[in-house]
Design brief:
The protein is α+β, with helices and mostly antiparallel strands and 451 residues long. The protein has nine helices and ten strands. The relative contact order is 0.07.
């Protein structure tokens, strides 16, 4: 009997199940229940609250990969999921509901990509909007330590019309969570590396109109310096080493001067490239510009020093040529005393012959002739004057030869002339100065860059 009752009850349940099949629901049933249509402006025209004194809380979440999530509560929308087969959320066009008027203050260009066409609403009235934006914003950059610089840019989001009495802005995620999520989305970082993303809730008062809530995202990024170091700083350092090596080129040749001019022109080309890399406006002079200008000034000073040394060596060469000319003139003049000496010897021999003849005549006659005596006295005074003049010429020639030998002695010993020695001293002193100043400057600017 009991078995028959159980069997009959099962048949009854099967009949009821076949008479009332399982209910099928669609999202449109929810929209029909809520009376959400494009012609119904009730949900799109005003802020969705039942009491106008209660503000709408808008929760904002952002990511550096240009994803912006906005969530708020619509008090005019709600349904029981059990009445609609467990449907908890539906999507609908964004034109059908009220959307908070949020704006980015640092926006430099209007976003051209189309906005997301749909919103999500849940059974308890929560509305979600996802935006994928590519934001071009203004940012105050400090390029003083370029290419080892770190930049901080801000993105401030706030309502335009609704004050804090109507819209309360709240950040969904804190700074650490936002930074972690942004680093996960940034698969390719390119020239920049994300360091931190700080979220700050704040408000500002505009005159007597009221107070507006705002959320400020501070994005801190660091430039990847390897490419700029290899393409710019290292070549400049190579040119500096070449300029230092040019001091070992002999100053007597013209290759040293042309080599330094070529290196200086190469630095000028790098200055033009630097002008394209650095921003046109900056509050402070970048260290990169100081680095290039200082090295350019050192090379220019080195070029001027080479010109001075070359000029001094040319002066010494000119003086040496003048000494050689004077030596040749002295040699030609020294031939005249020899001719004079030869003539004097001839005249003396003739006079001795006449004296001998006179003495013989005097001896033969036994009487001294007065005319012969006067002639002998005159001839003796002329001989003394000629000898004195000859000695004076010989002394002058010896002094001239001594001076010439003194001027040519340093050249013979390999020390060069006076101006050449001065040029060598200037070159050595400038080389020590060049190395000292370069080492000090590179040390100071490296410490400044690393700090």
């Amino acid at each position: 009997m009991a078995a028959l009752l159980i069997y009959g009850f099962c048949l009854l349940l099967l009949t009821v199940h076949e008479a009332f099949p399982k209910r099928v629901c669609a999202p449109q049933d929810v929209l029909d229940y809520l009376n959400l249509t494009r012609n119904n402006e009730k949900f799109a025209t005003t802020r969705p609250v039942r009491d106008w004194r209660r503000p709408t809380e808008v929760r904002l979440d952002a990511c550096l990969s240009a994803i912006l999530s906005v969530t708020w509560n619509n008090e005019l929308i709600s349904w029981n999921p059990e009445d609609f087969c467990g449907i908890t959320q539906v999507s609908l066009p964004r034109e059908m509901l009220w959307i908070p008027d949020l704006a980015i203050y640092e926006l430099a260009e209007q976003e051209n990509s189309p906005p997301s066409p749909y919103l999500y609403i849940t059974h308890n009235g929560e509305v979600s909007m996802e935006e994928d934006l590519r934001i071009v914003s203004t940012c105050k950059m400090d390029v003083r330590k370029f290419p080892f610089d770190t930049q901080s840019c801000q993105m401030t989001i706030s309502p335009i019309l609704h004050s804090s009495d109507e819209i309360k802005l709240k950040a969904t995620s804190n700074s650490s969570k936002t930074t972690q999520r942004s680093k996960q989305f940034m698969m390719t970082q390119g020239e920049w590396e994300l360091l931190d993303m700080t979220v700050t809730e704040d408000n500002f008062t505009f005159s007597d109109l009221g107070t507006w809530d705002m959320i400020r995202y501070t994005i801190t990024v660091r430039r990847m310096p390897l490419l700029h170091v290899l393409n710019f700083q290292v070549p400049v350092l190579f040119f500096l080493v070449l300029d230092l090596a040019s001091f070992f080129i002999p100053d007597t040749k013209g290759e040293k001067l042309s080599f330094k001019v070529t290196v200086l022109l190469a630095i000028s080309v790098l200055l033009l490239i630097l002008n394209d890399i650095l921003p046109s406006k900056s509050d402070q002079c970048p260290l990169m510009a100081t680095y290039i200008i200082f090295i350019f000034a050192l090379m220019l000073l080195s070029l001027l020093e080479t010109i001075l040394v070359t000029y001094l060596i040319d002066m010494d060469s000119a003086s040496e040529e003048q000494v050689r000319v004077n030596t040749k003139k002295s040699s030609s003049c020294s031939l005249k005393p020899e001719i004079f000496i030869t003539q004097h010897e001839t005249t003396t021999s003739e006079k001795d012959e006449k004296k001998r003849q006179g003495s013989e005549s005097h001896t033969s006659s036994g009487v001294n002739s007065p005319s012969a005596s006067l002639t002998g006295v005159a001839l003796g005074g002329a001989e003394a004057m000629a000898d004195l003049h000859l000695l004076q010429l010989i002394v002058e020639q010896l002094q001239a030869l001594r001076e010439n030998m003194r001027a040519l002695e340093p050249r013979a010993q390999g020390g060069g002339g006076y101006w050449s020695r001065v040029a060598k001293r200037i070159n050595a002193a400038f080389f020590v100065f060049y190395i000292s100043v370069t080492a000090l400057f590179l040390t100071l600017i490296s410490v400044e860059w690393i700090e």
